[in-house]
């Protein structure tokens, strides 16, 4: 899949922008604060319906505007698709494919991206929520229908938590139990699907992670992915781990473990007014040298681990996609790497159909990746290939 053209209207600091991209490597160069990250953020948003920098869409709409528009022309094997998202300050966002209205998540069927940014260090060093987001964003790109499953699960979770809080505050625990059991059934059904999908994804990622980490950091430091599952007794509040499923779990096995775990934590849930079992309480376990990477990896090792996770994700998507390679996006990454890691990363990504790179200093980017260049200066996007300029503010 190739992104040949990107149009922005009232997105972030851009009033308008028209940017052409080429197959292979594209480098967006500009001083900090000029808007280069905003360009690749828009591309990533089209693919995932989320930003790697903020949790709310409001920040993506230019100040004073009611809506932002991101439009991309995509090409694959001679076919061309125009995908468009309208991000509304008030009301639901809208989407189009070739000018025909569709649900926003339909765009993910035509565009996949893997974006690495400095914020990804939090996947390795941060809280479990960041690792869950990493898995779920990749799940949705791998199987777009899971976006609906995850959304439904989050809705049921909110409803169930409201009921638990109401039961705790009113003291009407017995009256709430029958209603709570209805929500239990729905949460178990949806949660089981998420647990199984994450498990399959982790198993697919692990061999790719091993290869990617060795490619970036060199041999001699084994890495491993695991799962900490609340349905098997893991409790992040008590720092209690749990053994994974002994073999490939089936849905009945997960549902049974889920129901048993809820029954065991029922009193604690009613006392605290929150749901303590389910995918929202799970974690992705990252090991380096048979130790938790979160607490033992150095700064350089953490960078290598985060890069390797993204490269592993790209390989999984590439292997399973009928639409060509995902677009690999490296946002201000090379400035943080030493020369050895720069060369190795360049080698790892040079075979992808299209790579978008942002850099404040062109010299930070390995020469082998200095292909098509887009410069950003003084609030303007300058496409070297066309010498076209679009003003931004």
Strand order, sheet with most strands: 8-12-13-3-14-15-16
The general outline is globular
CATH class of the largest domain: Mainly Alpha
Helix content: 40-55%
Q: Could you say what the CATH topology of the largest domain is called?
A: Glutathione S-transferase Yfyf (Class Pi), Chain A, domain 2
Order of helices and strands: EEEHEEEEEHHHHEHEEHHEHEEEE
Strand share of the residues? 15-25%
What assembly state would you assign to the polypeptide chains in this entry? single chain
Integer tally of domains: 2
Task: Tell me the major beta sheet.
Answer: 7 strands, mixed
Pick out the low-confidence regions: 385-393
3D architecture notes:
By secondary structure, this protein is an alpha+beta fold. The protein has two domains: 1-112 and 321-393, Rossmann fold; 121-319, Glutathione S-transferase Yfyf (Class Pi), Chain A, domain 2, CATH 1.20.1050. The chain is built from nine helices and 16 strands. Strand 4 and strand 5 (79-88) form a beta hairpin. Helix 4 crosses helix 5 (173-217) and helix 5 packs across helix 9. It is globular, with a radius of gyration of 22 Å. 40% of the residues are buried.
